[in-house]
């Protein structure tokens, strides 16, 4: 082997910084730190544990090794439960809950101190207390790992908006149709209710503006006026809601040739400000009303409309849960 090893990493072989900066900006914009999912788990875990401690403090006090709980033990356990519930709500209410997770770490230290006092009392069940300490240490390790991962989040404009409660979702799909055809169909906003199940109507009002009416959780409807902020034929369409919208939102749909001549890659990025922030988004997710899920469902419907001319429905789409094998003839609400 001739030549010098490692030249691929040499300064002369690296791409020009000005050329790579746009791609780095895109990467930072999309970047997740890996702590978001575990933070959500910790949020739900905190609420579950807190409810157990607040509603059954005597039982939980015995679980950690106190054989004969007194009023002080019970009051302390109930207070710990309320603190856990507060941690959980704080984590689930913030898109980047770095500070809320670090506060859980501080709570873990307090729990360990209280368990240490329990261990020091010879009248308690030290075996149970030891087991409780081991569990708290395991959760503390997860808390610290999650908090450190969230701390690595790059300080971008997108991250700043998400810290203010704005929820961001990004989805993509490949459609086996030419870019020009896919763009043209989407460009006519009045086509959107054909595949977006939550949209009741879109009316183009002129001058790049349109009026939208959509279904919301609990049978409500929301409306807003939007304006097109960017429109590059066969490449992208961007929009944002105007002041006074029931739900503030903005987004962009991008079109690009799919690799291997497989049609068009459609990428949708959506930002919205839910009424209850991230917590409202999590509650909506339980009923499949969270916009990230809606966007993915809508893209699948869009693909079907573009490729087959209609939305293909399965038996499971018509009837949820156990049902007769023969589907009925009732119309389907998308």
From TrEMBL:
Q: What family does the database annotate?
A: Belongs to the ribosome association toxin RatA family.
UniProt xrefs under InterPro entries = COQ10_START, ORF3, START-like_dom_sf
Q: Which SUPFAM superfamilies match?
A: Bet v1-like
For this entry, the protein name equals Coenzyme Q-binding protein COQ10 START domain-containing protein
Spell out the residue ranges making up region: Disordered: 312-334
Domain Coenzyme Q-binding protein COQ10 START as annotated: residue spans: 176-291
Q: Which residues form a coiled coil?
A: none
| CDD domains, per the entry | SRPBCC_8
| Superkingdom, natural source | Bacteria
Report the source organism.
Roseisolibacter agri
